[in-house]
Amino acid sequence: MNINELHLSEQLQEGLEAMRFEKATPIQEQAIPIILNGDDLIACAQTGTGKTAAYLIPVLDKVVRSGTKKQTTTLILVPTRELAVQVDQAVEALSYFVDAGSVAVFGGGDGVEFERQRRGMTEGAEVVVATPGRLISMLKAAPKGKYFSKLQHLILDEADRMLDMGFYQDIMTIIHFLPKNRQNLLFSATMPPNIRKLAKEIMVNPKEISLSIAKPAEKIAQFAYGVFPEQKNNLLDHILKEKDYQSIIIFCSTKSATSTLGRNMKRKGYSVESFSSDIEQDERERIMLDFKNRKLNMLVGTDILARGIDVDGIELVVNFDLPSDADDYVHRVGRTARAERDGTAITFLEEKDQRKFANIYEVTEKKITILPLPESLGKGPDVDLTGKRGHKSNNKRRRSGNQRNKSKRPFKKPKR
Question: What predicted TM-score, i.e. pTM, was given to this entire model?
Answer without folding.
Answer: 0.69
